[in-house]
Amino acid sequence: MEKLKEKILSEGKVISDSILKVDSFLNHQVDVNLMKEIGEEFGKYFNSKNITKVVTIESSGISPATMTALYLNVPLVFLKKQKPNTLNNDILQTTVKSFTKGETYELTVSKKYLQKDDNILLIDDFLANGEAASGAIRLIEALGSNVSGIGIVIEKSFQPGRKLLESRGYDIYSLARIKQLSDGKIYFL
Ligand code: G4P
Question: What is the pLDDT, as a whole number, of residue 10?
């Protein structure tokens, strides 16, 4: 998506050879007009897949996922990272290890919001190692829903996430694919 790539080039900050900071439009402040276009782009691409729900992971996935769900006119479910106050039988949890942040967290979903045979479009802001997406997929599939597609705003193609998910047969659409970050510069595929 050209407009997204231009935004990344003009506002993205290369923190290291593996981390790109995009706080000004995606991870802290949100460019809502860009998010609207991102939602339309994902919506059009996955329109033929009979999507019944959009799923994302809090927090930065919520804005692109909301716009996608709005375009497709389906509910949005975001998977929670904070521990629920009370453990009960209504929830399902899985452990995710974040290599980028060097921490482990529990991803939680309430069973009542994902049903057997739901066709899920999973949206996330970044794809790096694919750990977060893999955790989300574990929860979705454990409840009998199908992962019908994966939409990623920024893919770091030099990290193994895409290969991992593709090897499992998922249809991945990334709007910007970064080949390399080096010497403060961003190179797209
Ligand atoms: P993975 O899921 O693909 O394995 O990635 P990883 O666990 O390593 O990423 C953990 C967090 O770091 C995620 O955010 C992810 O979006 C973010 N992240 C990974 N690489 C980059 C990067 O180059 N730039 C930025 N800005 N973020 C990156 P999170 O912890 O879920 O945060 P948030 O959604 O609450 O903002």
Answer: 98
